[in-house]
TrEMBL record:
Source organism per UniProt: Actinomycetospora flava
InterPro entries per record: MFS_dom, MFS_sugar_transport-like, MFS_trans_sf, Sugar_transporter_CS
TM spans (from-to): 51-76, 88-111, 117-140, 161-181, 187-206, 240-262, 274-294, 397-418
Pfam families the UniProt entry points to: Sugar_tr
Major facilitator superfamily (MFS) profile domain segment(s): 14-426
Protein's cellular compartments: Cell membrane
Keyword terms, alphabetized: Cell membrane, Membrane, Transmembrane, Transmembrane helix, Transport
PANTHER family tied to this protein: SHIKIMATE TRANSPORTER (PTHR43045:SF1)
Protein name: MFS transporter
Length: 433
C-alpha cells in the first residue's frame, strides 16, 4: 500500500491498539520485577541469607526472560502463519491469566517449597506471553505505517515499556502509602497482580477492533511458509545476531534503571522504598514524549544513526551509573536513573522499525521476535545478576560499570551491522511498498 492510499485514521488506530496492549503486558511484567525486589524474597525464599534471597528473587525475575525466546518462536510461527491480530489477542490473554494467578499464590509459610515452584512456573508463562507480544505489536504498527513515519509509529508499542513502568510503579507507590508496611507485605502486594484481569479486558476490546496489514494479507494469500523460523535460521541468521546485539544494551540498562535501582537502594543502601519508586515513576513519565520525539527524528536522521548516537550517550552514562547510585543521595540517584533511561531513548524508540526492516514479511514476526528476546536475556535478564555478582567480587564497582558500558556499545554495533544488511537485502523497500 502506498503512502498516499494509507488511511491515517487506520494507522493511528492500529498504533493505539499496539500501545494499549503492550502497556498492559509490560505493566504485568514490571509488577513482577517490583515485587521481586520488594516482597518476594521474604515471602517465597525466607530460609536463606539476604544475599541469596536477593539473587533468588532476581533469578525468578530472570526466568521470565528465559521463556521469552520460546514465546517468540511459538507466537512468531503463529504470527507469520495465521496473522498478527489473532496472535496478539492470545498473548494478551495468556499474560493476564498468569499475572492474576500470581496475585493468588500462597506463600512459603502456607505451602512450603511449592510456593516458589508455582511462582517460577507462572513467571515462565509471563515470559512466554511477552515473548510473542513484542514482535506482533511492533510489526502490525510498522506494516501499517507510511514509509516516512515507520520509526515514529513503530515507537508506539515501544511506549508500552515506560507506560507499563509508570502504571506498575504508581500502583505500588499508592498501595505502599495507603497501608502499613506489614499489610503491604502480607497482602497488599497482591492487588496490582489481580488488577491485571480488568486491564486485559480493556486490551482485548481495543485489539479486536484492528485489521491485519495489507503486507501480511498479500503474503497469506500467496501461501504461508511452513516453517518460518527454519527459514530465518537458514537465510537470515546474521540479522538474528544483529538483533541480539542491538537489544542487549538497550534492555540491560533499561532494567538496571527500572528495577535494580530500587533493590540496591533498599537492600544495600537502606533507603526507603517510596522515594526510589517515585524517581523511576517520574523519569518514565518524561521518557514517553522523548521516545516519540527521537523516533520521529529518526525517520529523518536515519534509524541506525539515531541508535548509535543513543548507544554512545548511554555508554557515557553507564560508566557513572553505579557510582552515582553508591553515593546514597536521592538527588544523585534520580540523576543516574534519568540519565540512563533518557539517554537510551534514541536506541529504544527506533529499534522496532530497524528490527522489522531486517526481514521479509513472511518471516518477519519470527525473526524480529527471536532476535529481540534473546537480546533481552543477554541484557535485561543477566544485567542485574552480573552486576550484583561483580559488585561482590574483587572487581567491585569498576568491573560492574565496565560491564554496563560494554553492553551498551554492543547495541550500537548491532544497529550498524543490521542497517548494512538491510541496505544490501532491500527489505527496507519491501516494508515501505
Amino acid at each position: 500500500m502506498s503512502e498516499q492510499t494509507r488511511s491515517g485514521r487506520e494507522v493511528r488506530k492500529v498504533a493505539l491498539a499496539s500501545l494499549v496492549g503492550t502497556s498492559i503486558e509490560w505493566y504485568d511484567f514490571y509488577i513482577y520485577g517490583l515485587a521481586a525486589v520488594t516482597v518476594f524474597a521474604p515471602q517465597f525464599f525466607p530460609q536463606v541469607s539476604t544475599l541469596t534471597g536477593t539473587l533468588a528473587a532476581f533469578a525468578t525475575f530472570a526466568v521470565g526472560f528465559i521463556a521469552r525466546p520460546i514465546g517468540g518462536v511459538v507466537f512468531g510461527h503463529l504470527g507469520d502463519r495465521i496473522g498478527r491480530k489473532a496472535t496478539l489477542v492470545t498473548t494478551l490473554v495468556t499474560m493476564g491469566v498468569a499475572t492474576t494467578l500470581i496475585g493468588l499464590l500462597p506463600t512459603y509459610a502456607a505451602v512450603g517449597a511449592l510456593a516458589p515452584i508455582l511462582l517460577v512456573v507462572l513467571r515462565l508463562v509471563q515470559g512466554f506471553a511477552v515473548g510473542g507480544e513484542w514482535g506482533g505489536a511492533v510489526l502490525i504498527s510498522v506494516e501499517h505505517a507510511p514509509e516516512s513515519k515507520r520509526a515514529f509509529y513503530g515507537s508506539f508499542p515501544q511506549l508500552g515499556v515506560p507506560i507499563g513502568l509508570i502504571a506498575s510503579n504508581a500502583m505500588f507507590l499508592v498501595l505502599a502509602a495507603a497501608m502499613p508496611a506489614e499489610a503491604f507485605s502480607a497482602w497488599g502486594w497482591r492487588v496490582p497482580f489481580l488488577l491485571s484481569a480488568v486491564l486485559v479486558l480493556v486490551g482485548l476490546w481495543v485489539r479486536l477492533r484492528i485489521e491485519e496489514s495489507s503486507e501480511f494479507v498479500a503474503v497469506r494469500r500467496a501461501g504461508s511458509m511452513a516453517l518460518p523460523l527454519a527459514s530465518v535460521l537458514r537465510h537470515h541468521f546474521p540479522q538474528v545476531l544483529c538483533g541480539i546485539a542491538m537489544f542487549t544494551g538497550i534492555t540491560g540498562i533499561g532494567y538496571m534503571a527500572a528495577t535494580y535501582t530500587i533493590q540496591y537502594g533498599t537492600s544495600t543502601l537502606g533507603l526507603p522504598r517510596a522515594p526510589l519508586i517515585a524517581i523511576v515513576l517520574v523519569v518514565a513519565v518524561l521518557e514517553v514524549p522523548l521516545i516519540l520525539w527521537v523516533s520521529a527524528g529518526a525517520d529523518r536522521w536515519g534509524l541506525a544513526r539515531t541508535i548509535v548516537a543513543g548507544s554512545l550517550a548511554t555508554a557515557v552514562v553507564a560508566a557513572v551509573f553505579l557510582p552515582l547510585l553508591a553515593t546514597g543521595s536521592l538527588l544523585l540517584i534520580a540523576l543516574a536513573v534519568a540519565a540512563a533511561r533518557w539517554a537510551s531513548a534514541p536506541m529504544w524508540g527506533p529499534s522496532a522499525a530497524l528490527a522489522a526492516e531486517c526481514y521479509p514479511t513472511e518471516v518477519r514476526y519470527s525473526g524480529a521476535s527471536v532476535g529481540y528476546q534473546l537480546g533481552s536475556i543477554v541484557g535485561g535478564a543477566l544485567a542485574p545478576i552480573f552486576t550484583t555478582l561483580l559488585l561482590a567480587s574483587p572487581l567491585g564497582i569498576t568491573g560492574a560499570a565496565g560491564y554496563l558500558v560494554l553492553i551498551t556499545l554492543i547495541s550500537g554495533l548491532g544497529a550498524l551491522a543490521a542497517d548494512r544488511i538491510v541496505r544490501r537485502s532491500g527489505t527496507r523497500e519491501a516494508v515501505a511498498a
